[in-house]
Design goal:
mainly alpha, Methane Monooxygenase Hydroxylase, Chain G, domain 1, Ribosomal Protein L9, domain 1, about 190 residues
Length: about 190
């Protein structure tokens, strides 16, 4: 009787979990302990009955194994749904402030995971944005190329060019000075 009550309880939790797309169902603080006790009881009962050669007992063993399998699948579905909700809420919280993540109704172990995910998303996004926005501007002087110039290696060991007429490029000042004197480039102001 206790077994069937627990199965109904898990089925009800699953139904509630599936019904709300955003908020997790409140699980008791003892949810994990109760689930462990249930699994232990059923496994012990199966072990106790397994050796008995009686069609009624064999059917009971099979029924218990099916019940165990069914409850396990329901618990897996419950936590898969809860993880989806938690990751989504962590993503939302990471947009502004991961510390604002609401972990109400999550088990302690779930709440810790989703806080870490929210913080990691927040930190990673900020690193990417920072890297993009703090890229140093190209150094040099902006010039318009007035005549085609083949590729060349400058005193700094870097290759420059080739450049085509009307290209707009930034070049070091010493190169600009020489190109201007030769009529190959003009500074854009």
């Amino acid at each position: 009787m206790v077994k069937e009550e627990y199965t109904r309880e898990i089925a009800e939790i699953l139904r509630e979990e599936l019904a709300d797309e955003l908020r997790p169902t409140k699980l008791g603080d003892d949810f994990i302990e109760k689930a462990k006790e249930y699994f232990l009881k059923i496994k012990r009962k199966i072990k106790e009955l397994e050796g008995i050669k009686n069609p009624v007992i064999e059917r009971e063993v099979k029924r218990l194994e099916e019940e165990l399998k069914s409850v396990r699948e329901m618990i897996e579905k419950i936590f898969l749904k809860r993880f989806r909700k938690g990751v989504y809420l962590a993503l939302l919280a990471s947009e502004r402030n991961p510390k604002m993540l609401s972990t109400r109704n999550f088990l302690k172990i779930e709440a810790e995971l989703f806080r870490k995910i929210a913080q990691e998303l927040y930190d990673t996004r900020n690193k990417i944005i920072s890297e993009i926005t703090s890229a140093p501007e190209e150094e040099g002087i902006k010039v318009r190329i007035l005549d085609d110039i083949p590729q060349f290696v400058w005193l700094d060991g870097k290759k420059y060019g080739p450049f085509s007429r009307e290209d707009i490029v930034k070049l070091p000042g010493d190169i600009v000075e020489i190109l201007e004197k030769r009529g190959k480039a003009e500074v854009i102001r």
